[in-house]
Amino acid sequence: MSGPSRQSSPLLATGSLALPPSTCTCCPSFQKLGRRPQRIHQARVPCAQASASREQTKILLEEHEMPRQWYNIVPDLPSAPPPPLHPEHKSPITAEDLEPLFPKGLIAQEMTTESYIDIPQEILDVYKIWRPSPLFRAHRLEKALGTPARIYYKYEGLSPAGSHKPNTAVPQAWYNAQEGVKKLTTETGAGQWGSALAFACSIFGLDCEVWQVRASYDAKPFRKTMMQTWGATVHPSPSEVTAFGRRTLEATPDMPGSLGIAISEAVEVAAQDPDARYALGSVLSHVLLHQTIIGEEALLQLAKVGETPDLLVGCTGGGSNFAGLANPFIREKLAGKMNPIIRAVEPKACPSLTKGVYDYDYGDTAGMTPLVKMHTLGHDFIPDPIHAGGLRYHGMAPLVSHMYDIGLMEAITIGQKECFEAALTFAKQEGIIAAPEPTHAIAAAIREALHCKETGEEKVILTALCGHGHFDLASYETFLSGRMEDVDINEEKLQKSLQNIPVIGSA
Ligand SMILES: Cc1ncc(COP(=O)(O)O)c(C=O)c1O
């Protein structure tokens, strides 16, 4: 399925809202957004100067202002990312190759060459439970830091599962249900993605089976209860349920697990059941596509207060919240409408962008998924169990890897102690207790704000606070009691796993 063009948007079809871009003369900050004015009028966003001031704490959109299309950045990039390859014959995969794992609607999105995909009404209706999400100006944090920078954060923790993950779980469940799939299998690292999919499956009447990385299963028992409350079945990974899990446990009985192993288990079960499909919470292009609603909303919200960011920071595990926020801004940057620095933040213990190689590798540990060109630490690299379980993935989204490779963005690493220190500062000023993953983004935002304090620059910093940490208080407890250690990547382990990356030749 290739997505309908922008012209077929239901809102545009109403006619009365489809004002030509040239009619917008009241609002220079909206006009600055490349390719946007038409959609801004579609969403009936009122004049920026009249609607909001920078002194506001919450910048909100009405339900009817919610973007009605997801954005695919690929057609706007100077070059396309290299194609995924079949794991056996190593030639580019076809849609048919993916059908045992994914429904046709999502495969079409994975491969689409359209820039915009209409969001089906049934999905918009579920999104309305928590969307549009608020954009906050961190006035108190700015004051506490004494910085002239203006810090904005897009808060995704108000979703039922507590993070950005339902933005893709809901469409993934819906497209599967449309094609008669009865069950979805998946992995979860932080517990956030498994919860999101359990919620989405319950909405559309699908069974849900989740492999939760052992370290996370032990540390967050109430994430499991949350998934069960929505009707899901949850296994610790590695598990006795799959052949790969049993092999792994036999070799290493006390294995803490990893996202790569849990993915192998979930894929193994889905591939053997004709009524089941597999769902992935990050990495794939259709997942990043669904998350662009974050950035599209943030663009509208910043326009309401007449701001454009100088720096955009986001944490990267598989890259979905980062790309979801960043890609619409990169579109504007490529169109010459703004010029933010785009910065990914990864944990020191699992730094795929900054320490990995850019090469074809498997998305899972067992080597069952297609080969994708990405920044990878090696598919059998088992990251040490840090508190940000959602960032313990050996690879990076191929799309994010490509954007990094062609210089559209930069990446840094931060250790977990600095992240939790920043999270405490943030919680004391802004009130929100962040999930361990976005503490990386908060720490990077604070670093930049303190730099601005030295230079006097009034930079506009934008970040995604992509989830709350209410199920992560054991991690906070570890930090508060002084027991948290910084975990650097183990170089010896890294070199060993890099040797196992498959050799593709000239592909
Ligand atoms: C709250 C939260 N943030 C970030 C991530 C990392 O994933 P991604 O890089 O795809 O956003 C996760 C993954 O589980 C998560 O739960």
From TrEMBL:
Keywords: Amino-acid biosynthesis, Aromatic amino acid biosynthesis, Lyase, Pyridoxal phosphate, Tryptophan biosynthesis. One of its GO terms (molecular function) is L-serine hydro-lyase (adding indole, L-tryptophan-forming) activity. Its EC number is 4.2.1.20. The keyword Amino-acid biosynthesis applies. Pfam families: PALP. The beta subunit is responsible for the synthesis of L-tryptophan from indole and L-serine. NCBIfam families: PRK12391.1, trpB_rel. HAMAP family: Trp_synth_beta. Belongs to the TrpB family. Tetramer of two alpha and two beta chains. This is tryptophan synthase. It comes from Apatococcus lobatus.
